[in-house]
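Researcher: Structure for this, please.
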Amino acid sequence: ERGVLGIEQLLLAVADARAHNEKIVFTNGCFDILHAGHVTYLEQARAQGDRLIVAVNDDASV
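Model: Predicted structure, token format:
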């Protein structure tokens, strides 16, 4: 599944990935102004496994 997921959808996606023995990769960051470096970072993270989960930091954590 792609896009913004709520917690319940995320838990289902993780369970599905585990059921299919897929490698899950997790990362997080502040992507306030998305630039080429972010895209490269996310592409490299995605290449590390079968599914990529990206958490977006809120303003208070930056």
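Researcher: Any notable elements?
Model: The chain has one domain: 7-61. The chain has a mean pLDDT of 95.
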